[in-house]
Amino acid sequence: EAKSQGRGRYVVYTPDMDRHGAEQARIAADLRVAMDTGQLHLVYQPIVAMAGGHLYGVEALIRWNHPQRGPVGPVDFIPAAERTGLIVPLGAWILGEACRQAVRWQQELGDRAPHTVSVNVSARQLREAGFATDVAAVLQQTGLAPDRLTIEVTETAVFDGGTALNELHAIKALGVTIALDDFGTGHSSLGLLRTCPVDTLKVDKSFVDDVTQGGQQAVVAEALIHLSNGLSLRAVAEGVETAEQADALYRLGYRYAQGYFYDRPMPAADLSARLSEPEMRLSRP
Ligand code: C2E
Ligand code: MG
Ligand code: MG
Ligand code: MG
């Protein structure tokens, strides 16, 4: 079944179509309807503390169930949403929804609730004046404690301009956690780690993929854990798919990971059910 095939299953909007303005406009128009008619929902992927295999946090990821086209993946519509500016209202919805869910989990599960809920924020949102003020308002409205929210941004988004950095500092001042997503793949500058108030490095999947082969990517994975430890940042290895990768990463010093080996992204209710189980066997040992 298409759904079990992961990322590659989204074939409806091809990158080629993505380049065409008309198709972009159509995606954006459909997306606008989707926002108003409940075609969008969030799924949540566990971020795991590797040693005990228990849940540390979750990352919220958007899903679109298009009435005609079926599931459309974020890589196929987030770019269009960014270019058309629709990401601003869409992102606001995502942030509100994730914060509301985080509070629901705390009410339902108490200590077993995820410690933090991560929300992806695009460059366009970060450039929007008053973004940090919006984040503060959402926290206020939902009652979510700031330290229970993580904002994920890419290096490229932060590098983008001065206002992005100002907004991040303002968000950080609220007590929200900041994670650099896909770390090592963007317009990286180690200087960014001084100017950007970052707490967590999400080490990109490309460095995890062949970590067992001991090639160049593995060398980078090793360098990045040393860098993280040296700067007292939390490192999260992204896209861990096998036990061998998890073992190799652990030996290098990684303690947090996310990936299909542990769990796929799942609806909030599924995560609640898993976390309510007496044994709480969230992920493989
Ligand atoms: P990301 O933030 O780096 O999210 C991780 C992506 O890797 C997710 O894809 C997740 O499903 C996938 N993944 C997790 N573990 C594995 C694994 O072991 N193997 C493989 N092959 N993939 C894994 P997804 O959900 O398709 O999202 C793709 C990207 O779209 C995200 O990358 C993020 O950049 C963007 N995105 C997703 N949701 C949102 C959102 O709510 N807002 C914004 N602005 N961007 C979003
Ligand atoms: Mg992310
Ligand atoms: Mg990532
Ligand atoms: Mg990624």
Q: How is the topology of this model organized?
A:
Layout: H1 15-18, H2 21-36, E1 40-49, E2 54-66, E3 70-72, H3 78-84, H4 87-109, E4 116-120, H5 123-127, H6 131-142, E5 149-154, H7 155-159, H8 162-174, E6 177-183, H9 192-195, E7 200-203, H10 205-209, H11 216-230, E8 234-237, H12 243-252, E9 256-257, E10 266-267, H13 268-276
Parallel strand pairs: 2-4, 4-5, 5-6, 6-7, 7-8, 8-9
Antiparallel strand pairs: 1-2, 1-9, 1-10, 2-3
Bound molecules: ligand C2E and magnesium ion (3 copies).
List the defining traits of the structure above.
binds magnesium ion, 45% helix, eight-stranded mixed β-barrel, alpha/beta, 285 residues
Can you put this structure into words, describing what you see?
- Mean pLDDT is 89; it is low at 1-11.
- The chain starts with 14 loop residues before the first helix and ends in a 9-residue tail after the last helix.
- It is built from 13 helices and 10 strands.
- It has helices at 15-18, 21-36, 78-84, 87-109, 123-127, 131-142, 155-159, 162-174, 192-195, 205-209, 216-230, 243-252, 268-276; strands at 40-49, 54-66, 70-72, 116-120, 149-154, 177-183, 200-203, 234-237, 256-257, 266-267.
- It is globular, with a radius of gyration of 18 Å.
- The chain is α/β, with parallel strands linked by helices.
- 45% of the residues lie in helices and 20% in strands.
- It has an 8-stranded mixed β-barrel with strand order 1-2-4-5-6-7-8-9, surrounded by 4 helices.
- One magnesium ion binds next to loops.
